Amino acid sequence: MVTWVVLLSIAVLGVGYLVYGRFVAQQMDLDDTRPTPACKINDGVDYVPAKASMLLGQHFSAIAAAGPIVGPILAGIWFGWVPALLWIVLGCIFIGSVHDFISLVASVRHGASSMGEIVRQHMSRTSRVLFLIFMWLALSYVVIAFTDITAQTFKAVADDQAFGPGVAVSSFLYLAIGIGMGVALYKAKVRLWVATAVCLPLVLAAIWLGGRLPQDIAQAMMKVPVKGWEVGLLVYCGIASLLPMWLLLQPRGYLGGWFLYATIAIALLGAVFGRLDIQYPAFHLNDGLASLANGKLLLPLLFITVACGACSGFHGIVSSGTTSKQLRKEKDARPVGYGAMILEGVVAVLALATVMVLAPGDTMLKRDPNFVYANGLARYMQMAGFDYTMALSFALLAFSTFVYDTLDVATRLARYILQELVGWTSSVGAVVATILTLALPMAFLMLSKEKGYLVAWPIFGSSNQLLASLTLLAMSVWLRKTGKNPWITVIPMAFMLIAAVWSLILQVRPLLRWFSGGPALQPTDLIGGIVGLILLGLTVCLAVDAVLCLRRAGFGSQEFRVRS
Asked: Which of 37, 40, 201, 460 is close enough to 141 for a disulfide, judged by CB 3.0 to 4.6 Å?
């Protein structure tokens, strides 16, 4: 039954946090007497110390989003649930959590600097520029994938009933509640528990109102094309990324954390007590280890399809871009950095369970991953006596809130990176950097056909995992130069680098064939292929520079091997 698979997976993830998480934390010598950048600067805009509980919710909702839902569901459908589950659990413990935690600690130890600045200090100025460009491109694909997924949610239909418009209205109300909470917390000085007690019921009321949207309004909103929603979401990203963190990002992320906890609880209770049998094949492969669903190769595409469910370079940007500016004490880094990734693994396992209970040939397998996930949660809630319509609206809104958290955080981080790259420090520079950051997603989404996220997902996954491997590479150089054992990052880095480069080469082959007179490409495939070639070139340059830096630092020498 699904029950035992879910419970065993969560138990292994928990043991990983307690045992391996403690081991990794011991290597970093965390010290609460050492003041963090959030406490030293505390400018009320970007540097704002937050309680561990609030920061965990904000960080968790920022990194979790749709990645650990869409990726595991796609991987489960394509390859079977066993390969996806093994990679989620092992990847989370030994690679993803290590990546997130050490990225956070390294940023805090460098004054909450970005990964690009850390690369400059420990590698070279050229590597810093290349790394910043790489991060900016990777974040652009994060925005592309999740903008399109959210727009698809706003068009959701089930049993001839339009759910999408209600979800859109509830989403707008949710964002307004987040702004109201930020004003209450930081201007009216309302206590956190009081604001929580007021705002959470308001969010539930927003869900209730969205589910009871008059049909004429819902039908009018259904006439808005997906492209229209995508433009609106990108405009939102631009505005939200320029607002002070206390006004929207922190409170909205905190409320989004509650959504995550609620959906985890619902999915866990449903998976454990629903007495549901596993119906989907453990392996969905032919003899050549290719997916029976669409012919994609298990290796290396499993690793980039699951994406954020096991490891994500985007998390390192969040850790060093926003979370490090809010960490109040160094020892909070373990529950926030390592722990949030373990929780994300739990989300990924529970998302995968919504595929495991489906029989081969079920029409639900042809729906978007967001709907597969929402339908699973709604079925669990229906078992507990909830109305299916209300439950599905809640699940779809929960999914949308996860994506909102990633969308504006990714846009803000990309804006930071572009400003750092070109030296624009003024408010005008921030606006221009935001507009330029959103130009590539806008072009891609306007040129793509319906469900552009399926086109963007492979290149997003490849660039995301490449970014993780390059971040681990930079962390290895830093650990070696500071006298710490870098093997905890070197081994995961090598694995991720091989898988990601292999996958990216597969992604750019159609472009190379087109250059040599092959078949014509769609505009989005052309954009993806060009970006893929750029990412490959940046990766090679950064890897060569990192190896030279490690050799200069004595990595691989007999003295180092003995001391390690």
From this structure: 460
